[in-house]
Amino acid sequence: MQRKMKKVFLLIFNIALLSITFVHKGSAQASVSATATAQVIAALTATETSQLNFGRFSPETQGGLILLTPDGVLTTQGTVIPGGGSHSSASFYITGEYNATFTIVLPSGAAVLTNTLNSKTMQVNGWQSIPAPGTGTGKLIGGAMTVMVGAVLNVGDMNANPVGIYTGTYTITFSYN
User: Fold this and answer.
1) What's the CATH architecture for 45-176?
2) pTM of the full predicted structure?
3) What pLDDT, on the 0 to 100 scale, is given for residue 85?
């Protein structure tokens, strides 16, 4: 009878061990269906609506600086004399996603303006904007905003910068945050 008891005990022990093994394997894994989403927003666009224009001037004997603020205020330093005509800060019309914020990156270096008659040059630097440059400084209220840009024109004397029209390009970058 003891032998029978041992067999019964071994049988119960093996059944219990198998039960534990099956339970353990069943709880080590689970599957679930999950959801992924994506949203496409309007492309960010920028259009130049007003060119950066330092106006008409004479450098006189030593030249100097023409400072044009983003809000259109022009001042001179050195012997530079304004010569009438109009001047304007640059303006850019930015459109995109409603109420999205965007980054403004102004040129990191100087832009070169070249005389169309004789290849003499002037440099533009000291870039400023309204709103100020940086990450998230612009906000597309209602999906649009105007950014104003000003800078400093470095003018030489009459020999370095003779009469003529000086033109050049520069790059401003606008991007979503």
Assistant:
1) Sandwich (2.60)
2) 0.80
3) 85
